[in-house]
Amino acid sequence: MPELRTEEMVLNMGPQHPSTHGVLRIELVVDGEVVVEAIPHIGYLHRCFEKHAEAMNYQQVVPYCDRMDYLASMSNDFSYVLGVEKLLKIQVPERVEYIRVIMAELQRIASHLVAVGTYGLDIGAFTPFLYCFRDREMILDLFEMTCGARLLYNYMWPGGLSHDITPAFIEKTKAFIKHFRPAVKELNDLLSYNEIFVKRTANVGILPADVAVNYGASGPTLRGSGVKWDLRKDDPYSVYHKFDWDVVVGTGEMGTLGDCWDRYMVKVWEMEQSLRIIEQAIDNIPEGDVHAAIPKRVRPPVGEVYVRSETPRGELGYYIVSDGGQSPFRLKARAPSFSNLSLLPAISRGYLIADMIAIIGSVDIVLGDVDR
Amino acid sequence: MHNFITYYLGTGFWTSLLSSILPLIWIFPYALVAMWIELKVSAHMQDRLGPMRTGGWHGWAQPLADVAKLMQKEDIIPVAADKALYVLAPVLVFIGSYAAYAAIPFSPAYIGANINLGIFYIIAVSAIVVLGILMAGWASNNKWSLLGAMRTAAQLVSYEIPSSLAVLAVIMVAGSMNLNDICAAQSGWFWNWFAFGRFPFLFITFVIYFIASLAETNRAPFDIPEAESELVAGYHTEYSGMRFAFFYLAEYANMFTVSAVATLLFFGGWNSPFGAFMSGPVWGLFWLLSKAMVLIFVQIWLRWTLPRFRVDQLMYLSWKVLTPFALANIFIVGLWTVLK
Amino acid sequence: MNANEIHERIKTAFPDAIIEFKSEGVFEPFIVIRPELIREVSRYLFEEPDLNFDYLMSLSGVDFNDGNLGVVYHLHSMGRKHRIVLKVRVSKGKPDVPSVESIWKTANWHEREAFDLFGILFLNHPDLRRILLPDDWEGFPLRKDYKVQEYYQGMKVPY
Predict the structure, then answer these.
(1) Helix, strand, coil % over all residues of chain A, rounded to 5
(2) Which chain C residues contact residue A42 at CB under 8 A?
(3) The domain that contains C85 carries what CATH number?
(4) What whole-number distance in Å separates Cα of residue A216 and Cα of residue C107?
């Protein structure tokens, strides 16, 4: 009997596809439904961040940082202002540091809620998605009452903050923490430990730790592989060293270490750790003036600095080169999603198209961050 | 008297015409109501309100507005599509689901065609749907559609086996394939229903049938053929306007068929749960429809709770879990029936 | 290990690789390496057990605005918890830098980005294509002497 001849098919996933989380195009070479090769094509959302930055003041860059990873604007700004402050050798008041940490952690929860919720959506569970957005809405309300914006805040400025927080903010944040603890449990019952969900995500898209490090993965993607690495602990910045919390890593309890379930679950656990940090910070905010250290003119001396911080998606680094002028000579953003996405071809070979969706979702990319 | 129309008009052309149109009069309002229920149920499960404005009271007119929108929409046929098949597919899908209505006894006084192989007929004509979906996927000339159609074919063919085996167990107990007779065999109080007969084996059979029927209607967690987040929309990606509405209508028609069949086989069909109390032709209609609607609610409930299976897991469930269980059940129920 | 010690190690292993080493008066000490040897030096830093630079944090292209382009490597060691910055300088006329993709896979996309925006040619890179800009874009936007093209596929570019 002659062999039945089969052919591989090239399938274009994206740029408009419900599960590519934005305008990502993946060229899939499939054999039936089995993925032979996955080649990501990016750049559809390239907004020339680095080129723009060279034509602007240091302060004017902040709103552009907001727009890189639009689900974690606070964290983006945080990293940038740390860099500029380091160049300017500014010491910001303690109160500013505390508020920044609270904001960054609230942002982490908000961002993880989107990631976790849309991941459920990718797997086919619609309801957890809306539960997550309900809770995220409360965080956005908190941001709104502080700086007026819900998504792109322009809140952290070099040397300080745009607005101080109000007593009502503290009260509502505490109410949120009280509400959110049981909500995480509800999410776990509904989605995380759901039999079908576990079957879909465990043992899929396994990312070994050495591969993850070699590809420059960071954030939950790296920790999902069991690497205990979090810049907030390992390269502490701001006031993170004052708080008591744990770095959570994937355990492989449902399948293999580094599978999609681990990457997903690390995000859920991280939300709980963020709550712990906020709880400790919210009660101990020192008094002070958040505008005190804001410089009138930002003109850093000649020099260069590479700062990095842990955003919800991983290591966001800014390489800032100053030539003494009032705009950066060179500003490079090392986006976490960019490096995380680059390992997609390495972990998707041999899985089904349905698994491909699970893998893309678990790596948790934001295309604004990838393309900048 | 199985068909009250025969009673008044005798047998002949007008009776056939009336009997074939009657279910249609049911399907359209039912589909609208079911759509609205789905919108509202899903909304309330997800901590939101759903449509609240269209038509005033709790957005009751939303499905009407949706239908009006679908009818006005431009009918697009892709240039590279196989036109004849493309046009035929939605019609065929709807025919497949509609033809099944002929053998459903809505009430002791109404069944479209009181054929002795009623349940067998329903299983057989429902299979036409597979052809329609395959056609749609192939004719669209779209890779996503094709993948969706292939998945559907595999899924529907696989799940017909456990569902047919489940039906077989009931047939053995009832001793008939005529749905009216099966119903009559469950008359009396609700403990006479087959779901509670031969306890617990027929109840397990019901569970098997219900799971398989979810897969046959392409509802979550078995909505793999459509799998929005994977295949965009599966076999009906390229369809718009009325042709899409046909697929949609067929899905809801199918939901009712499988729920009605489950009701007839396991929950006494048109029988009142309280013996002779509230029984009769009109009450019969009421009981059948309300029992079926409860099952439809369960389908909606499951859809908005569970994630989606993967293709291979779906096949695993059908061939390695449901089919062996159904076979074992048949064996036990058969033995019980023989020894009794 | 601090920057001075790392510098000493490289100097012993590759006596002619280092052009400049600066550790005073800067935020981060850096070592300027001869471009031809960057891959060998990188492999050395990666493989030596007590150096163990397993994590490439960032790879940036830079236009120094003096006729030279550069690549800046920010390296970090997860096990040893130390870091170092490597730099190479190449002339705009012949911007050839050996690729370090075979050492750190991170470099794959970062080098493509540097090629895309600066036109730095990474030798032996497996897939050196534009990554962020369209394939048929002209010029390298982050070079300081970049002039934007008038039209792209019939669309006016400068607004």
Answers:
(1) 50, 15, 40
(2) 131-132
(3) 3.30.460.80
(4) 9
Query: What is the distance in angstroms between the Cα of A167 and the nearest Cα belonging to chain C?
Result: 38
Query: Does any domain span residue B29?
Result: no
Count of domains for chain C:
1
Residue ranges making up the domain that contains C139: 3-156
The residue segments making up the domain with residue B76 are: 68-339
User: What is the arrangement of strands in the sheet containing C68-76, beginning at the earlier edge strand?
Assistant: C18-22, C30-33, C83-91, C68-76, C55-63
Strand partners, A28: A11, A38
Q: Give the total number of structural domains in chain B.
A: 1
Q: Do C55 and A216 touch (CB under 8 A)?
A: yes
Closest to A317 (Cβ–Cβ): which among C57, C108, C117? C57
B301 touching chain A per CB within 8 A: no
Number of A to B CB contacts under 8 A, please give it: 77
Those residues whose C-beta lies under 8 Å from the C-beta of residue A185, and which sit 6 or more positions away, are none
Instruction: Considering only the beta carbons, identify the residue of A126, A355, A357 that sits closest to B304.
Output: A126
Looking at the domain assignment, is residue B310 inside a domain?
yes
Outline where A69-147 has alpha helix (H).
73-88, 94-123, 127-147
> What ipTM is given for this predicted complex?
0.88
Distance CA C108, CA C102 (A): 9
Query: Which of B45, B232, B307 is closest, CB to CB, to A17?
Result: B232
Which DSSP category does A188 fall into?
I
Fold entry, domain A46-341 = Cytochrome-c3 Hydrogenase; chain B (1.10.645)
Chain A residues in contact with B229 by the CB 8 A cut-off are 18-19, 121-124, 357
Separation in Å, CA A275 to CA A117, A176, A248:
18, 10, 13
State the Cα–Cα distance between residues B161 and B176, nearest whole angstrom.
19
Residue with tokens 């709807």: B94
- Tens of pLDDT along chain A (372 residues) come to 567 777 788 888 878 887 777 788 888 888 878 888 888 888 888 888 888 888 888 888 888 888 888 888 888 989 999 888 888 888 888 888 899 999 999 999 999 999 999 898 888 888 888 899 989 999 999 999 988 888 888 888 888 888 888 888 889 999 999 999 998 998 898 888 888 888 888 888 888 888 888 888 888 998 888 888 888 888 888 888 888 888 888 888 888 888 889 899 999 999 999 999 998 888 888 888 888 777 888 888 888 888 989 899 888 989 998 888 888 888 888 889 888 888 888 888 888 888 888 888 888 888 888 888
